[in-house]
């Protein structure tokens, strides 16, 4: 029976030294197998898991997140990919702030429109080609009328003859007959005043111009940041980093960093963390990572942190990744290693030597073996515990008191699971409903058959319901003071994380933290 190591060891008892060495050796072999899969295509996915875990950290203040990300933005060499993604977020969520910066530099629009009929059409025209009603069209018509003495001759009309200012003053809708493409091209060549005008500047302030070609403006702003070191751009960036939530920023930005920059970010993040393990839920994946990160610094290589995050916080995804790989030999090797680890003679002090190694040094390496052992527990539970009886034997063996939960245990007369909203409920409900509907159709087709056929169908349906009921289990556990109902789908992840959290508490207690 699988041992969860939930009783604190006697620290001066080293246990069986040979068994401890065997466990460390097998866990190292497990690490090699996992790395072989990650190296063959899973590393990018592991990086994404890491970024998502970091995004869940909740103890960073808005001030610190701004300081952290601004330091990263200003570090050498320039983080242009990172900056570009951040600017995309600003354009999406605060377009008026970017628009105000463009408005101060309206001259850039001359370059923006030169030789680009599509942009001209999008900003100035309406459907059909005439002058539109948007901010660009409004700026063009207002400037043309106010400054008619210098630009009226540059207006091109669709009719046989042009319109005079006096006529347009009384009938402003005549501006709709303007040949926008030809007029803007004339202004680009002959009316430089328009590109510096208040009318054009005002039309840019709401940021709607960004919709015409976002890529152009991202590149423009990146140049303002890194080539011109524009103060107003950095101020807008800083304000946004204080306003946006840490989770959204991390999910969008961290994936753009290369591994060296991500290591630098983790080292900076380490200095801003101070979580306390006793006050948090072990199911909070980001919190387990946050605690380890707060105690360990000097990240020079991502390998260890990628592995630790994968086994501690993404056990389910890691198992899926390992199963998706076509290398049957690696999968057999993995299963063999896990079986050997679980077959080592166990008692409450079996992990003592590994945990005591964590007492001595504060680095990722110290936690790696504990993380791997917790994943062994996850793998074993996910693969081997398939029935309510097997779960209850596990609880009893590890001295976990439990109560059967009323939820998810009973099927009503229609074959629907009562009292639950989990995925398992929905799957079971859909399956039984489908069978019931299928049986109704079949009874209609066989309406002239003997009633005994229907009785057999009913018996079969009842048997299916009983089989389903026998495989559905949900329990309240003493380890969380019976506060939540856990089913077989969630128990492997919950118990493996609870074990790791428990072991970490022992480590931090020895550190005096």
UniProtKB/TrEMBL annotation:
The lineage's top-level taxon is Eukaryota
Name of the protein:
Uncharacterized protein
- The organism encoding this protein is Prunus yedoensis var. nudiflora
The lineage is:
Eukaryota, Viridiplantae, Streptophyta, Embryophyta, Tracheophyta
